[in-house]
Amino acid sequence: MKKVLFGVFVMFRLVFPVEGQELLKVRDAVEIALQNNYDIRLSKNELQIAKENKTYGNAGILPSVSANLTQNNSVQNSTQVQNNGEERSLDNAKNNSLNYGVSLGWTVFDGLGMFARYEKLQELEKQGDIQMKRAILTTIGDVITLYYTIVEQQNLLSALDSNIQISRERLRTAENRFSIGKAAKLEVLNVQVNLNEDISTRLRQAETVKNLKTGLNSMLVRDLDIDFNVHTEVTIDEELVYADLINQADQFNPDLQLIVLNKRIAELDLKNVKATRYPTVRLNSGYNFSRSESSLGFVARSNARGLSYGITASLNIFDGFNQRRNERIAKIQIDNAALQIEQQRLLVHTNLKTAYETYLTNIELARLEEKNESIARQNLNITLAKYTIGSISAVEFRDAQENFINAISRYNTAQLQAKLSEVQLKELIGQVDF
After folding, report:
1. Rounded to whole angstroms, how far apart are CA atoms 311 and 313?
2. What's this protein's family per the entry (predicted)?
3. What is the Cα gyration radius of the chain?
4. Pairing mode, if any, of strands 23-24 and 229-230?
């Protein structure tokens, strides 16, 4: 009965690990990352900058108004000879002038370049929005990947804990057999060595789990010393269809969306370059006041104030063929953007095809390793019972014990790889759920 209860205890520890810390679910981890992660916060700031830049004034559509003030003073020793030959001179002659007013300038036509610039600012805002979404998508994927890596390693750690309990029971059994003369001292020593080996492996595994948790805390931008447990159950979406993934990737893959936007921006740059072929018309207006005083001269003091207005038009007639060169370059950049779209689409489809094949393989492996883990578990129970009654040797039991741990490790790894394949596919289509 003791052996049966011990076996039940071991299986309980493997399926339901003891939880001493707060349970951190994958959704909780993602939500914390969305609030704290530096890459996301930086992307949000870049998007805010793009929004602030999207103004009519930044595009050059609105007029500019400025206030001006100028005051000049001088003290000079002056000599003047007039037309009639009379000479006038004055030492320390003071002169001063004061000008101030308000001026307005407004470019009313520049070949429609101002509207092309405003459209470009709108596209840059969209670009910033997609870049932020890409940062969010990448962060979610990284958090989920690291979270389930911890799940894998935590499950293995729990299995190692149970393995140590089994080895300790083996040691007690070997010592009892030695005490009644049914086993040699060598068997006890071998079992003790196995136990020490299991404890050493467990220490290394605990270090791995702790370091992974530190990495996740860093990604979540919180205290690195926070300890937590993870939800050890891994749920894999096995219903992904390749044709649906391709259609979603063409619509929502952020890298592909960014390159499509780059082509639109290149087209607007061409419009802006072509605008310089047309004349630029600018309205000018202002209201100014001026005052001057002179100690020596025909006019001792003068004042003026009033409205000024006019129009300025300019046309580029020849600039060393730079206009033609700039237009050709802009057209080549549009062609490059179109080629990059096709290149990126092919790359996305290639990655998606490869990832989908890996996804299918990993799902099959996870199913197979689940069966192997169940078989190894049954084999360990049978071997434990046989070892207890002395019908098999310690070496044979050790083989069954190691097979069980290896089966658990392979099953955990297969589950992790299947989950990571699912996450990779959903990243490629721009829709990671959690």
Report:
1. 7
2. Belongs to the outer membrane factor (OMF) (TC 1.B.17) family.
3. 40
4. parallel
Which tens digit of pLDDT belongs to each residue from 119-166?
999 999 999 999 999 999 999 999 999 999 999 999 999 999 999 998
Please give the biggest Cα pair distance in the chain: 146
Question: If you search the block for the tokens 């310690």, which residue do you land on?
Answer: 394
Beta strands (DSSP E) in 348-390 are none
Element at 35 (helix H, strand E) = helix 26-36
pLDDT band at 83 (very low <50, low <70, confident <90, very high): low
Torsion sign across C-alpha atoms 185, 187, 192, 197: positive
Q: Note the pLDDT tens digit of each residue in 353-400.
A: 999 999 999 999 999 999 999 999 999 889 888 887 878 887 888 899
- Sequence letter at residue 158: S
DSSP H/E element including 105: strand 87-109
CATH assignment, 2-36+111-279+320-428: 1.20.1600.10
Q: List b or e across 372-409, with b for residues whose CB sees 16 or more CB atoms inside 10 angstroms.
A: bbeebbebbbebbeebbeeebebeebbebbebbbebbb
pTM for this predicted structure: 0.83
- Domain parsing of the chain, residue ranges: 2-36+111-279+320-428
Give the percent of the chain with pLDDT over 70: 92
